[in-house]
Structures are given as structure tokens and as C-alpha cells.
Amino acid sequence: MSTTPDKLVDRYLKHLEVELDDLPRDRRSEIVDEIAVHIAEARAVLEHETEADVRNILEGLGDPADIAEEARERFEVGSSAPALASYKPGWIEVGALVLLLVGAIVLPLFGWVIGVVLLWISNAWNVRDKFIGTLFWPGGLGFSLFLVFYGASQSVSSSPTSCQVSPVGTGQPANCIESSNSTGVMDVLAIVLMVAVVVTPVITTAYLAYRLRHQPGAATA
Amino acid sequence: MVAGKQDALLAQMRKGTLQYCVLALLADEERYGFDLVRSLAETDGMVTSEGTIYPLLSRLRRDGLVETTWRESTSGPPRRYYRLTTAGRAALEAFKGEWGRFRDAVDHFVERKAG
């Protein structure tokens, strides 16, 4: 006897297992085991098993996707509503969002660090989101404000910011010129940078909050 | 009514009543999965995919309406036998009463118009 019927059964059961992937493991194995026994029972009844017999048995059982769909309905899993309910933002998520953004202002350094700890404790975000939350920016708005004030004080104290090395042969070592044109460009650049620096943690926080609401599959984090 | 809608309605009715058919099959004797599925499939129009019975059996077990025991089989792997619990029997009896009234009420209108 060829091994093709066994292969067909194996393929069917594997397919079923994949389709049942989002069910709790005990339920998934219960259903797969029962269907494996069902197939064995049906095959045991046959006197001279043919490939067609096995195909008929599998066809009678139905498409694994249909069985999985039935299982999701019976156990009320898979639809986004219950998954969202189980990831209802709790104090950990709210705390993480608030502290990541303004923690460093309220409680220098530590406020933000606590925010990061909460971010990584929470199950609501995946690893990618957690890295984004941690890296943009360390310190959150506190870091942004520090940069902005630092940058502002720097540009005030040393207005001739653009220095140029003079062309070879003129004898002058280095020439710091106060070109109004290049300073203007630098100022615009600085302002854009400052705005970006301030806006980034706000965007990061908004993004994390958005992921909280629109991520039913967060359980894989 | 649109044909697709009607199909969906019938599928829902089948799905809703299927568990009571299973409970009824278990009312007098315990049965194993393959036996149960074949009995249901014998009656035309009740089950389209035999495999979809197993999620239902699993659910009934978790709801405490049936309980199971593994027994050795002479012809193959061990079988999981299903049997009604007290709660399962109570659910079946309650459904029988409701179903009888519902069926009579629907018949009262549908049959009168048809005849």
C-alpha cells in the first residue's frame, strides 16, 4: 500500500492545526486529537482502503478553515471585540504614556525611567513599539525642552556660528565670518530641528496610544 | 427574501439547534465522537461538514453539559465517550418544551398559508 493516504491525513491535520492557531492550546489539541481519532475510526472500517476513500473521509470532515471558523464561533474567540476587551488600557499603559511624555519634567530622569519600565512591562505593545517608545526620545518632552533651551542659549551667546577655513595660500589660519545669509539658513534649520525635537515625543505618545486602540493581536508581544 | 440571506438564516438555525440534537442523541446512551458524527450526518440537512461537530463537542464539555471518558477500542485508537450530565439533561428538557411551542407556532402560520 502506498503512503499517499497517510500523507493526505498528515497534511489535513497540519492544515487544521494551523487554522486553529488562535485558539487556546488545550482546545486546539482537543479538536485536532478528536478529528485524528475520527479519521482513524473511519479508515479502520474500510476493508481495502484506497486513496479515494481517504479523500472522501477528509472531504466529509470539511475544510479545516470551516472547522476553525466554527471553533472560533463556539468559543467566541478571534473576533476583534473580545481581544480588544482583554487589552483594555489599564493604569500601566496610561502611566507609561504620561510618564514617557512628561515624566522627566515632573520628576527629573526618574519619571521617564519609570515610564520606560511600565512600557516594557505592559502586554499592550509589541517589541517594535516598545523600542520606538524608548528611543524617541529618552526623557520625552523633558529632553526636548532641555535641547531647545540649550540650543537657544548657545545661539544667543555665540552669534558667529559659521566658521570657514580660508583658502590655502592667503596666510590667514581660520576665518569666522558673520555672514547674515548663512546665519539665516542656520536659524531656520535650528528652528526646524527644535520643532522636530519637541514634536517627536508627542507623535511617539500619540502613536503608542493609537496602537493601544488598534492592535488586537498584541498578545504576541 | 434574497437567497443568500435565507441560506445564512438556515445555517444559523441549524447551528443553534445542533447542540440540542447532540444532547438528544446522548439522552439514552453514551457515544463516541465518530459514532455521534455519523448519526448526525445520516439525517439529511443537519450537518454539512462533519468536522464542525468537534468544536461543538468541546464547547459542550467545557460548559458542563456533557462529560467524557476514554475507553479502549478493539478496532483502533482509544475513543472518547460522551455522556449527558445532569445540567445537560436539564438543558435538553428545557429546550424540548420551548422548541415544541416554537415549532407549533411557526407551523401554524407557514402550513396554513401553504395549504
Distance between the termini of chain A: 47 Å
The dominant shape of chain A is: elongated
Helicity of chain A, in percent?
A: over 70%
Strand content of chain B: 5-15%
Q: What order do the helices and strands of chain A follow?
A: HHHHHHHHHEEH
By secondary-structure content and strand pairing, the structural class of chain B works out as alpha+beta
Largest sheet of chain B: 3 strands, antiparallel
Please give the structural blueprint.
The complex is a heterodimer of chains A (221) and B (115).
Chain A: H1 4-19, H2 25-45, H3 51-61, H4 64-75, H5 80-86, H6 91-106, H7 110-121, H8 127-135, H9 141-157, E1 163-164, E2 175-176, H10 180-213
Helix pairs in contact in A: 1-2, 1-3, 1-4, 2-3, 6-7, 6-10, 9-10
Chain B: H1 3-25, E1 31-32, H2 33-42, H3 53-62, E2 66-71, E3 79-84, H4 86-114
Antiparallel strand pairs in B: 1-3, 2-3
Key structural traits:
heterodimer; A: 221 residues; mainly alpha; two-stranded antiparallel ribbon; 2 strands; 70% helix; 2% strand; elongated; disordered C terminus; B: 115 residues; alpha+beta; 3-stranded antiparallel β-sheet; 4 helices; 3 strands; 12% strand; globular
